[in-house]
Design goal:
mainly alpha, 2 domains, 5 helices, metal-binding, Ferritin-like, Mn_catalase, Spore coat peptide assembly protein CotJC, Ferritin-like_SF
Length: 120
């Protein structure tokens, strides 16, 4: 969704405007196509996905990822005065909060199950 927001904000920009605003390298490589990268220009890679194989450890990784995304959305909200863009970002930020809460609930359920004696 963020890449789509960036696309909508830049779709009518001229190459000169993109260059003036620090997007010349991106334009030279990708035109106005969506290309997933961080703010420093490092492309997205599957190595960003962390998995241990233990459900509780993996859920804690998920919680951390949701909280990092929440913080990023807040910083983006703080960087713009475009109300429509802020509304979309606020929706995404709140979605991360809910995801984090659900993952935390799942951790507690798994901990209860892990500690419960099982009789067969």
């Amino acid at each position: 969704m963020i890449a789509t927001m960036v696309y909508k904000l830049t779709k009518d920009a001229t190459p000169e405007q993109l260059i003036e605003n620090g997007l010349g390298d991106h334009y030279a490589n990708h035109d106005k196509a969506l290309f997933y990268q961080n703010a420093s220009g490092v492309p997205w890679t599957a190595t960003y996905i962390q998995a241990k194989g233990d459900p509780i450890a993996d859920l804690y990784e998920d919680i951390a990822a949701e909280e990092k995304a929440r913080a990023t959305y807040q910083w983006l909200i703080d960087m713009t005065d475009d109300v429509d863009l802020q509304d979309g970002l606020k929706f995404l930020r709140e979605r991360e909060v809910i995801h984090s809460l659900r993952f935390r609930e799942a951790v507690e359920i798994l901990k209860e199950e892990r500690d419960r004696k099982k009789f067969f």
